[in-house]
Amino acid sequence: MALTTRRRALTTLGAALAGAVALPATSAWAGERKHGPRPLWRAHAHNDYEHPRPLFDALDHRFGSVEADIFLVGDQLLVAHDPVDLDPTRTLESLYLDPLAARVRANHGSVYRGQRGSLQLLIDIKTEGSSTYLALDRQLRRHKHLFTTYEHGRVYPGPVTAVISGDRAARVPMEAQTVRRAFYDGRLADLGGAAPASFIPLISDNWTLNFTWRGEGAFPAAERAKLRTIVSTAHGRGQKVRFWATPDVPGAARDALWGELVDADVDYLNTDDLAGLEAFLDGRR
Questions:
Q1: Which of 54, 120, 128, 161 is the most exposed place for a label (fewest CB within 10 A)?
Q2: Which residues of 11-41 are buried (b: 16+ CB within 10 A; e: fewer)?
Q3: What is the pLDDT of residues 153-186, one digit of tens each?
Q4: Torsion from C-alpha of 181, 186, 192, 197, nearest 10 degrees
């Protein structure tokens, strides 16, 4: 039976070797070619911070979206999956914001040199949403030219788009802002609601709570129709779609489910297996 995405230890020799030496931020982009391979905008690195080189492993595999869980501890935003894993040296600033700013400067305004498009930084709030978001907002404002910005009714694209997930209490202070450098991660309950794509550009939900199919056997026709209705409704409103808790064990079931997601034009495929999703999407091309 296919297991869902979960926290994962090093699963390949390549990952182990990559983690042997933590490269400084500048080293990760110094050798990048002027026009590298096309980014895989559909690829989402679930719990990205658990890889040996957070952010950089995902970028090396050309991912278009990375996910970081944050806890507000004092005035610091620490990155971890659980409170027991908190480390004062692993901050959102040091693991993601500063390296992204350095990379964008080096690449003359883009995350992937010579490529247009905005990297999605999905920030999952694990502590109380309102206070944590306000602390996060202060940090995002320090990187004025890095992030896609909503300002007085208009959206100005940037090389990185921050989308806020996790504790739902973040929504209140976000909706009150006339200028913000982050957007809200909606749920299927928000699909077709009053909030526009300029506030909720992404609809995310748990696959297992909405579909019975796990990639084995035929995809039930009714569920395929439901998936495509979700995607077409979201796209009609200018929103993107992502499901978490999809099968993530390598094999035929995972490939079958990923194939259905691609065929339905789901915008982000969720994985902990960076190399596996990269190979799958390259094969689909």
A1: 128
A2: eeeebeebeeeeeebeebbeebeeeeeebbb
A3: 999 999 999 999 999 999 999 999 999 999 999 9
A4: 20
For 251: left if phi > 0, alpha if psi spans -120 to 50, otherwise beta; the answer is: left
The length of the chain in residues reads 285
Nearest Cα neighbor of 164 from 193, 135, 207, 206 is: 135
- Reading the block at residue 23, the tokens are 């490269």
pTM of the model: 0.87
Q: How far apart are CA 2 and CA 254, in angstroms?
A: 8
Write the CA distances from 146 to 173, 198, 253, integer angstroms.
21, 18, 38
d(CA 216, CA 214): 6
Q: What is the CA radius of gyration of the chain?
A: 18
> Which position has the token pair 């202070």?
173
**Where do the domains of the chain lie, and which CATH numbers do they carry?**
38-284 (3.20.20.190)
Contact indicator for 201, 185 with CB cutoff of 8 Å: no
Q: How many angstroms separate the Cα of 13 from the Cα of each of 10, 59, 97? A: 8, 19, 28
